[in-house]
Write a structure and sequence with these properties.
Order of helices and strands: HHEEEEH
Helix content: 25-40%
Structural class: alpha+beta
Number of helices: 3
Largest sheet: 4 strands, antiparallel
Shape: globular
Length: about 130
Amino acid sequence: MSETLSPELKPPPPLFAAALEAVELELALGKRDTRDDLCEQIIRETVESVGGVLIFQVKLGAGHDQRWVGAVAFTQEDAPEFAVISIPGNGGAIEVIPASRSELPLASLAIAYADLAQSWARARATR
């Protein structure tokens, strides 16, 4: 009886190719003072420091429900990966999650806006 070895199985691809960058961004934002008057600048600087590109950011809500949200792109193997940043104004946990898994309505806007910006860039380059 001969034993046949099964072919080596490859590990499944990560659900989010930029997972390490997203975690790095989340940790870096957690170390920063995200007070309201500085949050916009802090988000931009922190995203750039981990190699991401800030697509947009906006402050939503008021009072206890206020939060900063933003969309960021990370380039992975020549393809962008999009994530959503959520920073609660009440000092809650900061989250950086893949746009494809975010329940925030602006997650789909992030991908559409990035696609539109790329189309504009290509149109300008062909002029």
